[in-house]
Amino acid sequence: MSDIVFLNGEFVPLEKARIPVLDRGFIFGEGVYEVIPAYSRHPFRQPEHLRRLQRSLDAIRLANPMTDAEWTRLIHDLIARNVGEDQSIYLQVTRGAAKRDHAFPKDAKPTVFMMSSPLATPTREMVERGAAAVSATDYRWLRCDVKVTSLLANCLLRQHALDAGVEEVVLFRDGYLTEGSACNVLVVRNGTLLAPPKNHLVLPGITCDVVLELAAAKSVPVEVREITQDEVLSADELWLTSSAKEVLAITTLDGRPVGSGKPGAVFKAIHQAFQEFKRKVMRQAA
Ligand code: PDD
Questions:
Q1: Ligand 1 centroid vs 1 CA: distance in angstroms?
Q2: Per-residue pLDDT of the chain (286 residues; tens, 9 = 90+)
Q3: Alpha-carbon distance 154 to 181, whole Å?
Q4: Are residues 135 and 253 in contact, defined by beta-carbon separation less than 8 angstroms?
Q5: 200 CA to middle of ligand 1, Å?
Q6: Does the C-beta of 207 come closer than 6 Å to ligand 1?
Q7: What are the structural domains of the chain?
Q8: Residue 233: Cβ-neighbour burial (10 angstroms; 0-12, 13-18, 19+)
Q9: Which of 168, 187, 205, 257 has the smallest count of CB within 10 Å of its CB?
């Protein structure tokens, strides 16, 4: 069975989907996107993802081409048309095709694209081992809070990690932690969970919010504040969060063990809480 994608009002097989080469998503990387995990065919935290999509569209001054009810119907339709109980739903809106000119075109129609891929959450072995990461300088632009499709810096940084034989980068700007190339990064020190402030330097992660809620529910002290590079390098635990990776421990940084070099006690409690929470939400949705 071929992958079915949604493009500008139609569901079509992936290999039949075509966009004009003058699409501003292709020419300028001018678009926004979301990645929504679906467990047992139920989208997880969809209202929050649609809210962030609206925020991204507002930031690039592009009108939302659909209502939330229309997005919801399409997301469910896309999930139903694709195989796999757990899917990763990608949706993207660009400013559409127009003669190449940096200024916004007067009458371009936004391009709306959606696809589904298998949701590959970390295996049990990965959860028990944790991920390896290297530190890097965050040289991205100053609107990292907007989920834009122009991800060149993120791609270069991810490749930097892979070339170093590790999975992710932990990014620092002016001596402070920001995030990873495709994830948020959290720190545990002396039993307190630290998260960088939600400002223009990090993407407001939906998974990160879930993890902070679960930590608060488990009475883990949470502090949202600027975190220095020294605090990260001497952390007891480091975690990454994203819709694809859920919550995963970073157990080595720059070749040195983080804490004991194994996923820590706070991580284990929150990872378990995350799995239980997911199951509860899916039972309620069923
Ligand atoms: N990335 N920070 C960055 C730079 C990201 O790209 C992502 C997600 C996150 C985590 O956000 P969330 O928890 O809402 O997934 C943080 C997605 C998965 C991607 O680009 O594929």
A1: 29
A2: 569 999 999 999 999 999 999 999 999 999 999 999 999 999 999 999 999 999 999 999 999 999 999 999 999 999 999 999 999 999 999 999 999 999 999 999 999 999 999 999 999 999 999 999 999 999 999 999 999 999 999 999 999 999 999 999 999 999 999 999 999 999 999 999 999 999 999 999 999 999 999 999 999 999 999 999 999 999 999 999 999 999 999 999 999 999 999 999 999 999 999 999 999 998 998 8
A3: 5
A4: yes
A5: 15
A6: yes
A7: 4-118 (3.30.470.10), 124-283 (3.20.10.10)
A8: middle
A9: 257
Cβ of 242 closer than 6 Å to ligand 1, yes or no, is: yes
Mutate to test the pocket of ligand 1, among 203, 240, 274 (most ligand atoms within 8 A of CB): 203
CA nearest ligand 1 atom 2, residue: 183
Clarify whether 268 is annotated catalytic. no
For tokens 């001497």, the residue is 234
* C-alpha 136 – ligand 1 centre gap (Å): 18
The closest alpha carbon to 196, from 160, 235, 163, belongs to 235
Is the CB of 179 within 6 Å of ligand 1?
yes
Q: 96 phi and psi, to 5 degrees?
A: 95, -175
